[in-house]
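May I ask for a sample protein chain and its fold as tokens?
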Amino acid sequence: MNDIHRKGLVLPFPKTQTYILICLFAHIVGCYNVKAQDDKAIDITTKGIQIGQQVPDIRINYIHNYKTNSAKISDFKGKFLIIDFWATWCSPCVAMIPKMDTLQKQFGNKIQFLSVTYQSEKVALPFLSKLEQQQKKHYNLPIVFGDKKLHKLFPHTTLPHYVWINPDGVVKAITESKEIDSKNIVKMLLGNSQMAKKSDFKVAYDNNKPFLINGNGGDGSNLVYHSILTKFTEGIASTYSRTSLNSNSQGKVNSKNTSLLQIFRIAYGGYNKYYGLSRCILNVVDSTLLVSEKRGMEYLDWLKNGNGYCYELVVPPNLSLGMYEIMKKDLNNLFPDYTTKAEKRKVKCMVLKRTSAVDMIKTKGGPIRMEFSPLGFEMKNSPLTALTVRMEVQFMQNSPYPIVDGTNYNDPVDLKIDAKLSDLTELNKSLSKYDLKFEVDDYITDVLIIEDKQKSTKTN
């Protein structure tokens, strides 16, 4: 997916999934009390220390992998200090660890990377130990656990987030991860600090109230039904949310600052299906009006340049069960140039298969439990479909193939896997002890087809 790693991610999870990443966005952004005047978005990084300003000589505690367990900013004087704000759930952050370790060794005492997380040692340290065990390598980067001070000095809403501080304690740059390379470090050491500044925009917005009503546009107290579509709205995170399936309460679904394809995927996925990009077939002349392969800030620019939308639908209780059918009709009226349909087709899929008739996975019973992380998972008394769904939605969302369960195994299973879930070779190696594997094969599965209406008419 073309999603920025905000502390909230655009993922239309099926009914059985928890909106983990969206909750993480709410958790961390909630640390900053931002009030935007006149309902305009503000760059939250401007609320902290700016480029060109001196960093206070604060004491940093709970440092791991360092000569002492605490240090002051002045202790790094004489080195270029690069602060790396990260979290265990942030895949791009974790991918940067080996790169930073290599750069640290390359430049030696000229620089010092300092990784900083708000997460506690009990959460982050086991994760790092497991990462080192899987990669068979120890990383010597100093890491600060449970940080509040540095987060307060350098507020942000997206990860990873980097702050470059020169040997005299002055901030020289605030960047994304793509700026972290040997070329830019050399430039910094030579006194050239011309790099694009990372900006994290935030606007006062309450997702519990209707969009554009009362600070969003009225208080919404008498609202019975509305359907809203706008172009990209600066300051609102790219998110998706919906109410639970309940005929006794008001129904609400919204998709903020997302592509048109994302909105179609939400509408046709409804309460119980997930249409990842690998399940979307676009028979259109210009696919760039629906989706983009750009990443990071380039993807944001694409959204801002006429390709991003905010959509919200609110319906009364008596219509909540049919909310997604209403949404489909909405999209048909709003975007009449397209014909959209969901159907089953035989396509190339990443299929989970059993490699023998020996039952190596049958559960021993007990409470149902599913625990997943980027470095492995444990399932107890759970269905295999829970694995393929989680892989497609979260850990292999960029796979060119839909991920499906082709085992025809309907009983609950017990599985414990220690492997990087985005690495198919490593995952299959770990799955082999259960006589399971993923492989590409033809399989009948759900797909979403979008066609130019003129082309569809000619075909029919």
Remarks:
- DSSP finds eleven helices and 21 strands in the chain.
- The chain has a mean pLDDT of 88.
- Residues 91-107 form the longest helix (17 residues).
- The CA atoms of residues 424 and 438 lie 8 Å apart.
